[in-house]
Amino acid sequence: MARIDVIMPQMGESIAEGTVSRWLKKVGDDVKRDEPLFEISTDKVDAEIPAPSAGRLAEILIGEGQTVAVQTIVARLETDVSASIGVAGGTPVSAPAASASPASASPAAASPVVAAAAAARPVAAVPSAAAGPGGAAGGSSVGNGHAANSFEERVRTRSSPLVRRIAKEHNIELASVSGTGIAGRVTRRDIEAMLANGSATRPAADQGHGAPHDTAIAAGPLPEAWPGDVVEPMSRMRQLISEHMVVSRRTSAHVTSIFEIDLTRVTRIRAKRRAEFEAQSGTRLSYLPFIIKATVEGLKAFPVMNASVAGNRIIYRKQYNIGIAVALDWGLLVPVIRHADELSLVGTARALNDLASRARSKKLRPEEVEQGTFTITNPGVFGSIMGTPIINQPQVAIMGVNAIEKRPKVVTGADGEDTIAIRTCAFFSISFDHRVIDGAVADEFMAYVKKQLETVPDAVL
């Protein structure tokens, strides 16, 4: 009789824990190798985890909704189908997490599933302060032989990336906090409790030349359920979205500007070439590839729109990684089109459709939702006329594409006479971080994108 442990995989370098969101098999079910076994939710992505081996599901140790550290045993497979099966004591129990030694932390040492999910990725060199606006100035190093955000560093600080970011904002040393989470991890509630008690405030030095301010945010009284109400716990993804949105509003000085863009030329090109394009490329042609290409050209012309803020420094990104918000039945994900400036319109359409499809089927890899430099959200597919999206941290701007529809417009003809014409238009919004982007720059960027879309050449395909 042989039993195989099924572990909580490390879905990416920055992931320290995961939540079992749903079991796709029940105890006693036969399982094929690489057949989806359970679903997990992490800080980065929701994913289906396949079985590491063929056999029968003998034990489920971690129930749905439970969050455990990576490397924790969540279930066991029985390879001898004639062996007895059952759940230990009839109740799922949590197995202890594996040692945080370099060997046990290695994704490849865990299982083929983890090895595939956390494949090695190249790390770009960061220029020194002398590099100027083209790179990150004055990058700092981490002592004790551990790289920043390494697995060893995460275990030492016992927290998720989100918690570490909030702690850094408020100058809280995580090593000194007694965590109430799994394996002593510091949770968001631990940090909020410290802030509410006034035991941790950010020093004035962190605010640049501005005056110090109280970083604790007062929370109102919790509402109570009334008779007949239905009370459900937030899903893991819903909690993460909630946390990220609140952090973004607290971090960036949000301002939104709105432009109307005439997409009549794009519409005519799509109508004329769409069938041929889709037959030759094997992929659908929507408006978004045109918008993405125009946006990338705008980011090249206005580099601060493709930046991030690190304290009193601005990091001008030299990669153009465009995040596309994808609405799911259970939440929202932002897969990233890497190096979008190197893709043709056909390549952009293929990448866009592939990422959106795999986001909906929970097939995205963790690295495919990381390192975006600018985000586009498209609420117009649901009929939204206008909106003010929240910036996707640590970016400094997000573009909203609203409903594309026919409108009567005043058009000046070649003879100088004004006439009423039917044009295909949409309102585009740009939410930007006023800490580093002035309104004039954001509007110039949008005017550039507008011109790109309104004058797109017929030979673009």
**Largest sheet composition:** 7 strands, mixed
Low-confidence stretches: 83-149, 201-217
Radius of gyration: 25 Å
The structure class reads: alpha+beta
* CATH homologous superfamily annotation of the domain at 254-460: Chloramphenicol acetyltransferase-like domain
What is the CA-CA span between the terminal residues? Answer: 60 Å
Overall 3D geometry?
globular
CATH class of the domain at 254-460, please? Alpha Beta
The fold-level CATH name of the domain at 254-460 is Chloramphenicol Acetyltransferase
**Helix content, binned percent:** 25-40%
Residue-averaged pLDDT, rounded?
A: 78
Count all strands and give the number. Answer: 19
Spell the H/E element sequence: EEEEEEEEHHHHHHHEHHEEEEEEHEEEEH
Helix count? 11
CATH-scheme architecture of the domain at 254-460: 2-Layer Sandwich
Strand content: 15-25%
Brief digest:
With about 450 residues, the chain is α+β, with helices and mostly antiparallel strands.
Characteristic terms for this protein:
single chain, 461 residues, alpha+beta, OB fold (Dihydrolipoamide Acetyltransferase, E2P), Chloramphenicol Acetyltransferase, 7-stranded mixed beta sheet, 4-stranded antiparallel beta sheet, 19 strands, 22% strand
Detailed description of the structure:
The chain is α+β, with helices and mostly antiparallel strands and 461 residues long. Among the domains are: 3-108, Beta Barrel (OB fold (Dihydrolipoamide Acetyltransferase, E2P)), CATH 2.40.50; 254-460, Chloramphenicol acetyltransferase-like domain (Chloramphenicol Acetyltransferase), CATH 3.30.559. The chain contains eleven helices and 19 strands. A hairpin with a 2-residue loop joins strand 10 (307-310) and strand 11 (313-316). The longest helix is centred in the middle third of the chain and has 18 residues, at 264-281.
